[in-house]
Amino acid sequence: MSLSTVRVVATFTVRPDKVDDVGRIALEALVRPSRKDRGCLRYDLCQDLSEPTRFAMLEEWESEAALDAHLAQPWLNKAIERLGPMLSGRPVIARMRDVSGE
Fold first, then answer.
1. Whole-prediction pTM
2. Counting beta carbons within 10 angstroms of the beta carbon of residue 13, is it exposed (0 to 12), middle (13 to 18) or buried (19 or more)?
3. I need a surface site. Which of 5, 23, 79, 85 has the fewest CB within 10 A?
4. What is the spatial distance between Cα 61 and Cα 38, in angstroms, rounded to a whole number?
5. Which of 92, 69, 87, 93 is nearest to 13 (CA)?
6. 101 is a domain residue
7. How many folded domains does the chain comprise?
8. What does the pLDDT read at residue 1?
């Protein structure tokens, strides 16, 4: 993996009654289309084993430009609007780079 890749860690908590819906909708509306975006190296939805209402989206992009192009996709905003009411708070989103040197 190149040091120029950009990783995104987005964590969010959902309402307990929406856990199943969020998993299904996120897979359909975010994960599958995002994996098709140019420059996407990884796009995974993960659920916390000890707290099922906690999720993380783990992403890796070839570059900042690829991530910015992904974020500009019109379908992305529609998916976020669809999922928004199911969340119990604001997502925490961090852009990161690998500094492990491996």
1. 0.88
2. middle
3. 85
4. 9
5. 87
6. no
7. 1
8. 45
Q: What are the pLDDT digits (tens) for 15-71? A: 999 999 999 999 999 999 999 999 999 999 999 999 999 999 999 999 999 999 999
Residue 102 pLDDT: 61
Distance CA 95, CA 56 (A): 13
How far is 64 from 97, CA to CA, in rounded Å? Answer: 10
Q: Residue 27 contacts by C-beta under 8 Å, 6 or more apart in sequence?
A: 45
**What range defines the domain where residue 10 resides?**
6-96
